[in-house]
Every structure is written in structure tokens, then in C-alpha cells.
Design a protein that fits this description.
about 180 residues; about 80% helix; rod-shaped; single chain; mainly alpha
């Protein structure tokens, strides 16, 4: 009887280890996928900004510094790497866009421009998509990190080198609501 119990126990333990390992791999891949979805939305945002700058630059002759800040922040955001670096660069870009939208408010002919309104609307829509993608990413990170920390998965995770993922944290400037007046 003991000859059958020990092999059966080892098979059950092996199956449990495989299931736990596969669960960790699945969650890690979900975190990576969620990060890529943020990247897709950020690229959309980055692609819209030059169009907006191009449309408003003729009207804003005296506001070149604001436009240059937006372009500089966009370029830094494109070059940012990692979760924390991307979060910081995107926060700076959000601040630069806020300044641009504030300046646009001072130019009635610009506010009335159909292209500017359309681009502002697309940027606002993109901001909403980014917020959703960040939330989804952070939810996946929470699930993954929690799995890494609970027993007995924490033992297996450390044996196989699984590391906690970083949350996509917003900056203080990004926590302010985006104000876009489409009138």
C-alpha cells in the first residue's frame, strides 16, 4: 500500500507545482499584454499631438514656447522606457497639453476652428482610453503581485525568479481632470 501512496503523493505535488507555475506564467503574460495596450493608446496620443500643433501654430505666433514645450514633452514621452519612466514622461506631456489647451481658450478663432475641435475631441477620447488601459494594467499587476505573495505560490515564484510588476502611477498633475472646452 505504501508503494502506491508515495508515488501518488509525488504525482499530486508535481501537478500542483505545474498548475501554480502555469498560473504565474499566465498572469505575467496578462500583465505584459496590458502594458502593450497602454503602449497602443500612448502611440495614438503621440500621433495626434503633431497634428494639433500644426493646426494651432499659425494662430499662436506669440505662444511658440507653449508649442515647443508640447513637442519637447511628446518627444520625451516617446523615448521613455519602463513603467516609471513612461509614467513620469506622460505626466509631463499631460501638463504641457493642459497649457496648450489653456492658451487655445484665449484665441476665439482657434476655439471655433473645426480641426482644432476635432483634434481636441480625439485627444480627450484617447485620454479616456489611456485611463482605461492604465486601470486594466494596474488590475492585472495587482492580481499578479498578489499571486506572487501568497503561500505556497510565493515559494515557487522565488524558485523560478518571478518578480513583482510595477504599477503605472499617475503624477499629481495628471490627477487633475482634463478641461477641454469644445464650444
Amino acid at each position: 500500500m505504501a508503494l502506491f501512496v508515495l508515488p501518488l503523493f509525488l504525482v499530486v505535488v508535481a501537478l500542483a507545482v505545474v498548475a501554480l507555475y502555469n498560473g504565474l506564467v499566465l498572469l505575467r503574460n496578462q500583465v505584459r499584454n496590458a502594458w502593450q495596450q497602454i503602449g497602443v493608446q500612448l502611440k495614438r496620443r503621440h500621433d495626434l499631438i503633431p497634428n494639433l500643433v500644426e493646426v494651432v501654430k499659425d494662430y499662436m505666433g506669440y505662444e511658440q514656447e507653449t508649442l515647443e514645450k508640447v513637442i519637447r514633452a511628446r518627444n520625451q514621452a516617446i523615448q521613455a522606457t519602463g513603467v516609471q519612466g513612461t509614467a513620469a514622461a506622460e505626466g509631463a506631456l499631460t501638463g504641457a497639453l493642459r497649457s496648450l489647451f489653456a492658451v487655445v481658450e484665449a484665441y476665439p478663432q482657434l476655439k471655433a476652428n473645426e480641426n482644432v475641435s476635432r483634434l481636441q475631441e480625439e485627444l480627450t477620447s484617447t485620454e479616456n482610453r489611456i485611463a482605461f488601459a492604465r486601470q486594466f494594467y494596474n488590475d492585472m499587476v495587482m492580481r499578479y503581485n498578489t499571486r506572487l505573495q501568497v503561500f505556497p505560490t510565493n515559494i515557487l515564484a522565488s524558485l523560478f525568479g518571478f518578480k513583482e510588476a510595477s504599477y503605472f502611477e499617475t503624477t499629481a498633475a495628471e490627477q487633475e481632470p482634463v478641461k477641454v472646452d469644445l464650444r
